Amino acid sequence: MRHSNTRIDSGLAPFSAALPLSILLTGAAMADPLKPVELTETDELVLSETNVKASAIPKNARLADPVPKSGIGREEFEARNNRRTGDIVKRLSGALVDEPGESKDVKLRGMDKEYTRVQVDGVQLPNGGEKREFQVNQLPSFMVGEVNVIRNSSAEYESDGIAGRVDIKTRQIPTTPKLEARFGYGGRNDMDGDLLNGQIGFGYKPVDWFGGMGSFDHLDNLLDKNKDKRFSTGKRELEKEVTRSHSSNVMSDLGLFYDDGEFHAKPMLLNTDFDKTKSKFNSEPNKAGSSEFEAENTNQSTAGSTFTHKHGFGGGQVWESLFAYYSSSEDKNKDKLANKETAVNSGKYKLDKSTRELENKTDQTWNLNTALRVPFTLGFKQEFKFGGAFRERERFRDKTALETNSAGVSKNTTGPKDNYRLTEDYFAGFLQDNLWLRDDFSLMPGLRIEHVELRSSTGDGKQSGKSVTDLNPSFHMLFRPRNDTSLRFAFSKSVNRPKFDELSPFEQDRGTSILIGSPDLNPARSQNFDVGGEYAGANLFFAANFFHKFITGVIEEVDSGRDQDGKDVFQVQNVGDGWTHGIELEQRLGLAVLDVNALRDVQVWANQTLLESRLTEASGKSRPFKQQPGFIANIGVDYRYAPWGSSFTAALNYIAERPEYKANGDVTTVESAVTLDVSARQRLYQGLSMFFEADNLTGENKVDIENLINGSSTRKVETYGRTFMVGLNLQY
């Protein structure tokens, strides 16, 4: 069996960053030299990632968009604690990013991460996860310009992702020279240097026909988890997990401009090394104890580029095209030692067995999208848009697991599910027509057709294939009774494609049962309804949205009713139907309304999400969707005082308890959690400022309560600690 140890050397990252930077610096040298920012009393003061200025609530553009969404631009999030994109997303309405210190998995509307999709500049990046998720902690916030949560997609968006789609857009090329740098030093629970962050970026459009920007980001982070799991029977499990990560990332944008359009090349390299150690001790009254020690090294890398072209015609038509290629790899080596106590309470342990796992995942995608937007008048003002998309995805997982007992005898414990190869071809076409019945009232019907061809094989040579076609209509209505108010309705059909490791035709003996793969799985499907509205005044923004989803064909592992060699055969099938609905509220208040000079740049913001769901299993049992909280809330304050060049932000996040009702009758609940993040910035000199950031000041832990069907219970506490960082921001 082949194992690829190929990885993208993070040592190349600074060189890769220097290439676009050197091109731009050459252009800058031919123009005016860089100078520190000169300011007057009426100018905008820029503090690295902090704009200190009086401004209206920056939400007006959202009112004119017929697609329901919630979002945030750089002018709002840049002063907050946002080392990674996950830190931005977790404060958006309806979004949940759990586990303090990681902020990696996005769960929109409280649904599991497998129901959420993430795209960057229109491309769904490949990743190592089996649930089609993208871990947003891989993406530094330094190059992010805007983040939106698309709640109910129109026909121009891919239909995959029942919960919604996170749309991340990178920063635009500045027309004047702009150099930014950020250097931070910190740690977890103290300032010991376990947290180091360095970022540098430069952008400039020196001539009308060319411009660009590039950035390099490096982050060293130490995540220390302590877990204490106690059983009602007296059993106890103590676990300590330490993960040290080193992340180096390069992102750039080179643009060519002409009178009627523009072309962009956006190469990207994301590379992270993880070194994890784990120790675990188990004890139980009147029984010999056990211990485990584990060491794991993982490299995750994503590399590729997006190429976009936009051309405008004389009649107002706009043609947009995109081509992208990305390759993602994940190489993992794990060694584990399991020991047993020689006698009850002896305190002496001997080796029971050791295991070694070698795993490589590779995921490659080729994307091609094109669309034409045509404005015209035929009875009513209209904008017709149509286009197509193609994506080829090649993915494989290659894993070997070896187990050696205390006598030195080894056996291969690799399962058929551990190795697979998938090729997924995606074809799509869409059309939609935005029709203005009046200047303040528009309707936008649309239709998207998606066809997916899947070919899969297992490590032992079994092969299968399947194709699925979906017709997904959409309808969006927008009413603008006033310039500062929007009322909207949206309907669409969406799908949720199966996890990768469920699609290969494997057969795996689990000891007491047999699990078989499901290459014939269909995607889960949903009918989505949203009704809401927004108001955006000079100092007040308010939004309310109600949504309801009818979901069919939810994918679950069930007993197939067949026996093989005296064992029950289980298979993942489309068996569950359900629904989820909720209310999403957003508010933002600018205290300039109080007409107090010291408070004119203070803004208070908040959002609340109320959720409810019900899923009917194949057995007829009814339960909520997995770990969906009933309530999510964020509240924060952004304070900026321009005369001193000062800013302060605070953000409080609350997530209600998250129950999970398992098929065997056990119930696991993640207790409610409250986290508080704060940051402060102070200008030291023109273009130079100092910052302080603190995450999880409440010291919140993750607490899991498990009530087992046999009457026993467990309580597990995971501690993460607080994170502190100080540093300098530089901008010229």
Descriptive report:
This protein has a 22-stranded antiparallel beta barrel. The protein has a four-stranded mixed beta sheet with strand order 3-7-8-6. By secondary structure, the protein is mainly beta. The chain is globular and about 80 Å long. The two termini are about 55 Å apart. It has a single domain (about 10-730), classed as Beta Barrel (Maltoporin, Chain A), CATH 2.40.170. It contains four helices and 38 strands. Helix content is about 5%, strand content about 65%. Mean pLDDT is about 90; it is low at about 1-55. Strand 13 and strand 14 (about 285-310) form a beta hairpin.
Short description:
The chain has 732 residues and is mainly beta. It has a single domain (10-731), classed as Maltoporin, Chain A, CATH 2.40.170.20.
Which terms summarize this structure?
four-stranded mixed β-sheet; mainly beta; 38 strands; Maltoporin, Chain A; about 5% helix; about 725 residues; disordered N terminus; 22-stranded antiparallel barrel; single chain; 4 helices
Q: N- to C-terminal separation?
A: 53 Å
Strand content: over 45%
Number of domains: 1
Give the radius of gyration: 27 Å
In CATH terms, the superfamily is TonB-dependent receptor, beta-barrel domain
> Residue ranges: pLDDT <50 for 5 or more in a row?
1-56
Named at the architecture level, the CATH assignment is: Beta Barrel
Query: Would you tell me which CATH topology applies?
Result: Maltoporin, Chain A
Structural class: mainly beta
Number of helices: 4
Q: On the 0-100 scale, what is the average pLDDT? A: 88
The CATH class designation is Mainly Beta
- What helical percentage do the residues reach? under 10%
Tell the overall outline.
Answer: globular
Number of strands: 38
Query: Sheet with the most strands?
Result: 22 strands, antiparallel, barrel
